[in-house]
Amino acid sequence: MASIDNGSDLGIEAALFKAADKLRGNMEPSDYKHVALGLIFLKHISDGFEAKRAELLAQYPEGAEDPDEYLADNIFWVPTEARWSHLQASAKQPTIGRLIDEAMIAIEKVNPSLKGVLPKDYGRPALNAVMLGELIDLISGIALGEGKDKARDLLGRVYEYFLGQFAGSEGKRGGEFYTPRSVVRTMVEMLEPYKGRVYDPCCGSGGMFVQSEKFVEAHGGRLGDIAIYGQESNYTTWRLCKMNLAVRGIDADIKWNSAGTFHKNELPDLRADVILANPPFNISDWGGERLREDARWKYGIPPAGNANFAWLQHILHHLSPTGTAGVVLANGSMSSTQSGEGEMRRAMIEGEVVDCMIALPGQLFYSTQIPACLWFLARDKSNGIARDRKLRDRRGEVLFIDARKLGFMVDRTRKEFSDADIARIAETYHAWRLGEGYADVPGFCKSASLEEIRSHGHVLTPGRYVGAEAAEEDETPFAERFAALQEQLEAQFAEAEELTATIRARLAGVGV
Fold it and tell me: Is the pLDDT of residue 55 over 60?
């Protein structure tokens, strides 16, 4: 097959996805995702192996069949029957599905770090062998003739692009494994994970880690300067994460168990320098009633009906003494007063761990129309270093950024931040933390004092502080306004039910 025009920028990814999606036929995106991503992964590790093998044959022929020579360069050993050239030669055979399964099994057998990670159901009767063969032909052209590093980067870009597109196709379910790239980039550019331990307690398909490594690379750092840790409760998503990181050549300690981070914390002693997380919004079945006495709840016991403040406190618990964190949460977390959430938020503000709050535009996420925000936490606001610069003492202040007017529509339903949007947000935060060139901008950002926040009842909605225009409410998309009102109404219903139950109990007492 002729090489696909690999181009230097985005374009090849979109063209490949369009072609691959056409081959999908009637298969569900959630099912096809594993078929396509598994083959891209197989192509990636086979290409890496073949490039190293060619190098060894030229310089040290006796090492070409020694797995340790590959391991030393963080390259997976690929047995003969699992090499892409072998599968490509058999792509038109009716047994191609079984051959792919055998290749996956063979790779897992000799690479312990991939055990249980790779998809192995290509041989099932429901999977069309002709479609598989055409998909192999399509993927065969990726990175053909490129140098080793450029090929790895291109395959990584294709894998990441496919993840995003599948998340879009799956809608709500897609959001469970994928955080939009522009949101992750904003968090990473703000927190600058340049060195130290980076942790995500609900890591999905690993996008936070990929962007962290990209940040280090882009700023001339050494990839070995950051150590990556994560946990994921969904086994399928954990497998996607392991493959995503392996495609990028990222070494990471990613734990899985079905009990989840709250109930089976796999990294109890970890204290991270940077934590990046996008927990599921407003999760009500997190089993909070079984964790009432947990040591993590320093700022109050989170309600059993909503995990938002459990996530925030779990993250604070895992921060190093000068660690910082960025967390995506539903807007309700900034203002809710039900079930003790207002008191927990007050305790966190008065405890000087809330550094910055950002209101996000609607339509950024695949999975929900609920308006979202970013919380930035700091274990010690009086101290810290961002890369090589000393941060100023920020106690008594919180930075508010209203980013609801930023972003552009990438299609009919979804918005993204532009590079300029991300730079504006990140540079505002950096200037404020460093005390160099920051100024309040009406309608966009405000450094608010603790006294001012107290006067607003410890509500953290940026619009209350930045001096938003009166007309702004009318410009908010209807879906976003409706979701916000619905969330507020649900909160009021819950409060009314609690009040009714209390009144009934007291009336019963009077009647005795």
Answer: yes
For the record, the structure tokens of 218 come out as 């882009």
CA separation for the pair 82, 102 (Å, rounded):
7
Model confidence pTM above 0.70: yes
Domain boundaries, the chain: 12-170, 174-467
Pull the structure tokens for residue 464. 């209350």
Cβ partners under 8 Å of residue 181, min gap 6: 160, 164, 207, 211, 416
How far is Cα 55 from Cα 82, in angstroms, rounded to an integer? 20
C-alpha–C-alpha distance, residues 194 and 166, integer Å: 30
Name which of 169, 166, 163, 207 is nearest 188 in CA terms: 207
Report the distance separating Cα 512 and Cα 508, nearest Å: 7
Residue 174 pLDDT more than 90?
A: no
Q: How many CB atoms lie within 10 A of CB 331?
A: 22
Instruction: For the domain made up of 174-467, give the CATH fold.
Output: Rossmann fold (3.40.50)
Per-residue pLDDT averaged across 133-141, rounded? 91
Question: Which of 120-124, 166-170, 365-369 has maximum average pLDDT?
Answer: 120-124
Name residue, tokens 């450094």.
447
Which amino acid, one-letter code, is at 244?
Answer: N
Q: Angle CA(141)–CA(147)–CA(152) in degrees, nearest 5?
A: 70
Task: Quote the tokens at residue 331.
Answer: 């807007």
Domain with residues 12-170, CATH architecture: Up-down Bundle (1.20)
